[in-house]
Amino acid sequence: MAGVGAAVLSHWHVDHSVGLLAAARAASAARVANQGRPEAELPPGPEPVQEPFVLDLHPARPARRGLLLGPSQKPVPFNVDPTLEQLSLPGCRVDLHASPHTLLGNRFFVSGSIPRIVSFETGQPGHATLGADGNWHLDPYIMEERYLAVRVRGRGVVVFSGCSHAGIINVVQNVKEVSGEHVFGVVGGLHLAGSKMEGRIPETVAALKEIDPDRVFGGHCTGWRAKAALVAAFPDRFQPLSVGGTYTFLAAPLGEAQKAEALVEGQSPDGEALP
């Protein structure tokens, strides 16, 4: 974790947020251990980041979340999200953002709340939040959810959507509107698993085909039926995500005109800064 600059939380669900505790502890330990050490004594691997490890979070952390099930709407709570205090370790910095912004020298874009414009993407049925009044309230839209995007030179934009409670088409349409560019890659959980969500699969796949991304990677909550439909629609472009997998998006080679422009701007032809 010494070479990692930031972690972005898409939304406040404990199956996403609890991993930040381990990440913060590892980043904190690495930074404390490397503080003040000469470069020659640093461990091998990615160049250590000297700045604090940034935990980029939405400020609307709920007291608790869960599901309301059955005719009685009995609440089934999820485990509690980590607190901001638990994440504020030495060498770490908690940044709270409700609005769109960039990270790590403008290399990454983090959205704000995602506009809900697609008629068939209506949130998560039965999802609820514990209110300040001590009662559970239906909260299907999970409005604090955000996505992360990065521009890959000569390819377009790659978007990372943690769980797509907003609906992956809402996510991708917003990326297109914000960037004005082709969406090269769609990466994340598409949240189409389970009987209450699977009815959206045909419309989702049809809309993705119109958008025509070059790569689609489906994560844990995409569901096997949605993955099968995506394989049929994108036979050479869809791939399931796997834990521990590494996915590299290569920039297009610079043309002669682009190389000349880079030199004028003070970069070498391969994109590195000139001395």
UniProtKB/TrEMBL annotation:
It comes from Volvox reticuliferus. SUPFAM superfamilies: Metallo-hydrolase/oxidoreductase. It comes from the Eukaryota. The lineage of its organism: Eukaryota, Viridiplantae, Chlorophyta, core chlorophytes, Chlorophyceae. InterPro entries: DHPS-like_MBL-fold, Metallo-beta-lactamase_dom, RibonucZ/Hydroxyglut_hydro. This is Metallo-beta-lactamase domain-containing protein. GO terms for molecular function: transferase activity.
